[in-house]
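Worked example

This section walks through a single chain of length 374. The input is the sequence exactly as stored; nothing has been trimmed or padded.
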Amino acid sequence: MNTDLAYWVAFSRIPGIGRARFAHMEGGFRSLADAWRAGAAELRACGLDERSVEAIVAARPGISPDGEMERLARAKVTALTWHDAAYPARLKEIYDPPPVLFVRGEMTPADEWAIAVVGTRRATAYGREIAERLAGDLARNGITVVSGLARGIDHVAHRAALEAGGRTIAVQACGLDMVYPAEHLGLAQQIAGQGALISDYPLGTTPRPEFFPRRNRIMSGVSLGVLVVEAPEGSGALITTSLAMEQNREVFAVPGSVLTPASKGPHRLIQDGAKLVTSVEDILEELNLQASVRPVQMEMRELLPANDEEAELLRILGAGPAHIDDIVRQAHRPTSAVSSALAVMELKGLVKQLGGMNYVRARESRAEYHVSSR
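Given that input, the structure is written out below as tokens.
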């Protein structure tokens, strides 16, 4: 157990203490527990500005780190720091990753293969139909559907993924002890059972207009790309695509009628270079996933590694479990790359994740794995 976690959660409750200030405290103290107990002078010495020091000193008497952990337990919410193995690898790559990510439900390695589906809250019948079709097809191909639990396109995307038997993640702009909008409570409960609700806002945080653009960085950050179905000019969905481009994520857009205001955003994105999408195959092809993902309802069958990277990982893995840290060391590859490859191999049935980020071959091979040059 991470005994320092309570102090990460406690600091996350103080307004203005984000990525840069957490980094200062990590660099200046042996632990966040030490930082929590530090005086104002010590906090300044680690590089914190006067405003942050004053905020910490003023807030600490009213925050109990142990009490925060008890609140999380009662709400069935877990907290991940950016050092935890379960923290989304792609989210660590963005400019402003949340130091603490709150999760209700479960994040899995399979979620490294995710697409954010976004759009207007005032979706047309066409928008709802295409969002349902594409989100469902993504889920049936083993792709996790990410959205924001809002009305309109978000609601349709989450629902379609659930009905397809796939995974879906909802990113909220409030604490995970509440649901916004309130009428999506039932949907949120289903998502928590078949995916996850996530947020970087501590429990008790009510949604405010300025929180939604910031939560969008998480939607794009955990995803391979962002799919826009309908979005009029000025839509929040277009903020997500701007963040996606800054994060070097793919942007996909569904065309619509030139007479419909909701199609203006996707059409402009297409003009600016976004991938035009009419079917799920357009997305899978662009991400080179046609041969990599396994439909959720497809029967297990013997598969061979698709490339040299998968073959190498299979050679490293034996019949006994191996922790991802050991695999990374032997593969001489970045953790994010190995984690992503293992997620795909798990979807294909080549490896199994036994818990605690330990992996094993799903079956013994009858011959040496080999990928010929193509």
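What to look for: Residues 291-303, 364-374 have pLDDT under 50 and may be disordered.
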